[in-house]
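#data-curation
PF: Archiving a pair of folding outputs for the training set. Convention for this channel: one message per protein, sequence first, structure tokens after, nothing in between. First:
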Amino acid sequence: MAGLYFHIPFCKRICAYCDFFREADLSRVDAALEAMHLEMEEQREFLAEDKIRTIYFGGGTPSLVRPAELQSLIDGAAQLWDCSGVDEITVEANPDDLTAEYIGCLRRTAVNRVSLGVQSFDDEELRFMNRRHSAAQAVAAVRRLQDAGLENITIDLIFGVDGFSERVLEQSLRQAIDLNVKHVSAYHLTIEPQTAFGRRLARGQMREVDEQQSQTEYILVHQMLVDAGFEHYEVSNYAREGFRAQHNSSYWRGAKYLGIGPGAHSFDGESRHWSAQSVAEYVAGREYESERLDERDHLNEYVMTALRCVEGIDLDYLEQRFGAGQRERVERLAEGWLCSGDLRREGGWLRIPVERFMISDAVIESLFEA
């Protein structure tokens, strides 16, 4: 099974923390969508032998695109590839785009999951992050979707933001729980240099929260969501039973996927390729860069993605795929972490306890093959 990703890189406003490829010139939207249809035709052999299981519209802000245009891309994919087994189609959306009219049109498409970029339910924190919606608009968007029968809703939240207390984070978590969404992705703020936050940090106008505050907020997120019935199944992801994010989970399992759109990445199991990150260049003609993964890359990626998930490393699979020597190496390097409790062994599996996911990077890097 494979995944199909459509990248819609357009935004009305650039968030203060955002380091993703995006463009604010909305006059290029129609030309980019036309080019995406052409790119599907050009890449039709990429998934020729695969069944597509998930489709994901990411961005940017896909909710800037009319639902009929999203459906047109879905229909175009179905004409080129086997989409008969697709059971999850997600669209990312900004809360203030989700008017009753927009949701009504969305209900007439095959989209069955909505990912809302909420980030916070506190108006002051939203303004600080330069979000273009209010807390009330986010609540209203969730309720409109639910009233329309689109109940498979996931929301993004950000924690670890300088100047905002645990009380603000607790308020956001409580609101998410009370809205009865099916999935929450809670990300610790990372300040990248080429962002508004990065520039403020360089000027001394803001700071990164310290390690103790990060850990405290992480535990608060974990405890509140788990106590509310969510499964903490990946470092940043929490789901109610039966509502894990299938598309993103396929990335963590190393599944094949095709990315369509400016800057979108694709993976065929052995190598990655990606298109030019200029919308103008993409519209003029698709050109790609690529990298081929060697055996060490595959091993390290397996270690990384496995330990970021609750199941952890399958030692039998590790031995079967990479050899007995690699299993022995990983088991030897894991001994110190097992003694400290930062790793646990359960049968033939090594995993990081979910309450210690915050230190997962150190554990993961120690098990990499250099």
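PF: Second:
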Amino acid sequence: MCKKAPEEPAAQEPLYVLLPQLAHRYFSCCFVRLEKLGVHPGQVPLLLALNSHGGCTQAELSRRLHIKSPTVTVMLDKMERSGLVERCQDARDKRKLRIFLTPSGTDVTERVQTVVRGISAALIAGIDGGELAVFCSVLERMRQNMDAACASPPGMCGGPQASP
């Protein structure tokens, strides 16, 4: 009879596994709670941007949120059909459309903020302020690193660098 080898403590999952798992769980939680408000989690940044910077053009929203312009167009179309936003012609430049929250959109945005604050509180439960500050600093640096890596030529993002 063979003896069973002692179990080793589980190794920490790599970042490329942990980050997608966390994002998936976060958005799943958001989806369930926001669905009751008729909002998709992907619409939250757009609602929040319009709440604080109403009157942006679609191009400005695209740049501000780092979302491709056609994606913003599709999102705004759905949100306009739901009565959350309205497109208004710019008074000085008739070619531009300015995007505003409707009164219903403003009300929904306030309720969305309550929901996402609650989810965020659950996300950071048990993490002290110092740990959170360091973590947020690290995440910001990672975002900057990804921006730089994705701005580099294809083939340069990830993987070992070729030596000259």
